[in-house]
């Protein structure tokens, strides 16, 4: 099986691939994953209608599912925006970057399954690993891609990577997802409240950016 995905054949004799085609394929995968998030709610609507429930009863009985859908939709949208910021700043991708992007897509496609677990089962440690852990992996895979691009000028073409502030924001997001995962695993009774730590991404990124500057320029 070709890990390149459709339309990502080598751009030259050095195993480099056109980013535009890879990005288009990734966009399609993200769009499908975001659409799949709504399916458990559609099933719940049918169940509520069959039971003769009112709209208010449906909403009250599915608050967790609705919240999980909204949260996962917003998080996938944020991941997609960050993916576009990274992939919009270079023109060619190495085989390693293509494979990492496939891993990134896998984590995105997994999120609808994890979201369905959140909406139908009580929070437990394994669920936290499957849900928040997937988001943490998504974040760190994109950080790895960003770092590979920054260190290989062959890939830039007429472009260049974004500033260190953008990398700092990505690293901060990954760190906070890991902290949120630890909090949810240690104290499952508080649910997914530790995800509120993500509101601290910008302050943490502001502290981290100058410390990353020297590392990425050496």
Largest sheet: 2 strands, antiparallel
Per DSSP E runs of 2 or more residues, the count of β-strands stands at 2
Structure classification: mainly alpha
Q: How much of the residues is beta strand, in percent?
A: under 5%
**H/E element string?**
EHHHHEHHHH
Helix content: over 70%
Tell me the number of structural domains.
1
What is the CA-based Rg, rounded?
A: 19 Å
- Indicate the mean pLDDT: 89
Strands ordered across the widest β-sheet: 1-2
Query: How many angstroms does the end-to-end distance come to?
Result: 38 Å
Shape: globular
Number of helices, counting only DSSP H or I runs of 4 residues or more: 8
Query: Can you tell me the residue ranges where pLDDT is under 50 for at least 5 consecutive residues?
Result: 1-7
Describe the structure.
Helix content is 70%, strand content 2%. The chain is mostly helical. It has one domain. The chain has a two-stranded antiparallel sheet with strand order 1-2. Helix 4 runs parallel beside helix 6 and helix 5 runs antiparallel to helix 6. The longest helix has 26 residues. The protein starts with 16 loop residues before the first strand and ends with a helix.
